[in-house]
Structures are given as C-alpha cells and as structure tokens.
Amino acid sequence: GQQVMQIPQYQHVQEGEDFTTYCNSSTTLSNIQWYKQRPGGHPVFLIQLVKSGEVKKQKRLTFQFGEAKKNSSLHITATQTTDVGTYFCAGRGSNYQLIWGAGTKLIIKP
Amino acid sequence: DSGVTQTPKHLITATGQRVTLRCSPRSGDLSVYWYQQSLDQGLQFLIQYYNGEERAKGNILERFSAQQFPDLHSELNLSSLELGDSALYFCASTSSGANVLTFGAGSRLTVL
Predict the structure, then answer these.
(1) pLDDT for B28-46, tens place per residue?
(2) DSSP per residue over chain A, as a string?
C-alpha cells in the first residue's frame, strides 16, 4: 500500500541551530500537509502544499514539495524553545486518503 | 479551543471492559476521523465518517466500532479492552470541501 516515510524519528538540536525533517512517499501525492503536535497536545495544521516544486514560508519555517510530488521537507531556521514538539507530514494519496508520516520529534538540548 | 470537543479527557478502566469515547465536530463539519496514538508513536488512522456514513476504514480492530449520529457527533466504542489499547484517541473533523483536519484535544485511555 501507499506509505510515507518520515525521517529522522528524533532530532536533538541546540537552541539556535537549524532543524529539518523529510518525508518520502512511495507514490505521487496530490498534496501534502504538515502538522505540529506540542508535548501533551494535539496535532495542529501548519500548511498545505499542492503544486510541484512549491515552496512556502512561515516566518522561520520553510516547507518544500518536490518536483515529482513524492517528497517534502520542513526546515526550521534558528530553533527556539517554542518549536519543541513533533512534526508530522500527511500526504493525500490516490484514494484521497491521508497517509501520515511517523513524525519527527524536535528536542532542544538543555 | 479548536472547536472539536472530545469527552472524556481521561479514562481509566480495567482489561476486559468496554468504553465509549465521544466527539462533537466543529460546527458545520460533516466529516469525522478517529485516530489512535500510542505513547510517543505516530497517528494510526482508525475510521472516517461523512454525514453519518462510513467513508474509510484504517487499521481498526474488530473489538472497536464507531458511528456518526444524525446530529453529526460520533462515538468510538472499544470493547474487551487490553493493556495495549492504552493510548490517546483523537477525533478530527473537516468540512465538506476542505482538506485540512482540525483535531480535538483527545481522550486518554488507560487500561489497567
């Protein structure tokens, strides 16, 4: 079946360092969404990418959708403590169902 | 407040028991999704309803069932509970034309 692989599972960074998480799909996606789940919280929608090669920015967050619409990335510049949480990608597959990545947990080193 | 209401917030029960989790979607949203999230794990899709009808099924166990009522609220029934069913159960809703899921705060189930 359709799968979305998300790596890494965890990323430990010093505050101020950058963070990147990657998602790769086994099949072409119609769109991809990103969600953030704070510790103890629920997933919250961040953004949706639809077009091949699309790049969107939200302040220090940069989201990319690959040319083949099979991969996507989220890059955070100069992480802050408020960025802590788990970032999930979710791709819309051919049957219109959302296929979720396993998430990448961003941990700020003390 | 996301507009999606889930009750109860916390539930502790024993193995073999049955529980019901309830979800009220955002006003106007017709579609309801149920997800299971075990400790520090990803989101496992269980089932989706649209306007009272089952739309899609994920990895939902036979011991689990769900329904969506005419007023659009949904219930997830978990029976013959096992220790491994301990998890956060999230409900999410979308409007008819939208892609984006709005999640509730979740129901944390602990099976002892």
Answers:
(1) 899 999 999 998 788 999 9
(2) ---EEEE-SEEEEETTS-EEEEEEESS--SEEEEEEE-TTS-EEEEEEE-STT-EEEETTEEEEE-TTSSEEEEEESS--GGG-EEEEEEEE-TTS-EEE---EEEEEE-
